[in-house]
Amino acid sequence: QVQLVESGGGLVQAGGSLRLSCAGSGRTFSNYEMGWFRQAPGKEREFVAGFTWGDVYYADSVKGRFTFSRDNAKNTVSLQMNSLKPEDTAVYYCAADRSRLRIGKADYWGQGTQVTVSS
Q1: Residue 60 — φ and ψ, nearest 5°?
Q2: Which of 7, 49, 57, 110 could be 94's S-S partner, Cβ–Cβ 3.0 to 4.6 Å?
Q3: Nearest-angstrom CA–CA distance, 47 and 57
């Protein structure tokens, strides 16, 4: 099994930055795709960024603003979020799966961390 814990969320003004981190325990991260999803109130959970299908992918809405990184040796992943917009407000989830992250499926999920961007 894999356990994931997110941190780094909070309240930030539009145009500001936050860095989310995810710490894993259990099986080695290298055996899994790792990434981030988010869910805003009244909306479906959506893929944001992650290492999947052999490369790093980003949702169109965050390209150029968010940067995903992964450290397999430390079992951690992070999401640097710059130029934040109010529409980025959501609960952000760290996720792990063998091969299906890009299509929105994961065997393991973190508890979520709230990101709120004020205008």
Answers
A1: -55, -35
A2: 110
A3: 9
Smallest Cα–Cα separation from 114: which of 94, 95, 89, 81? 89
The answer to whether 48 and 66 are in contact (CB under 8 A) is yes
Could you report the per-residue pLDDT of 18-73, keeping only the tens digit for each? 999 999 887 667 788 999 999 999 999 999 999 998 899 999 999 999 999 998 78
Tokens 């992964």 -> residue:
70
Q: Helices then strands (H, E): number in the chain?
A: 0, 11
Residue with tokens 């930055």: 17
**Amino acid letter, 93:** Y
Distance of alpha carbon 29 from the chain centroid: 15
With beta carbons less than 8 A apart as the criterion, state whether 20 and 79 touch: yes
Tens-place pLDDT, residues 70-97: 987 888 999 999 999 999 999 999 999 9
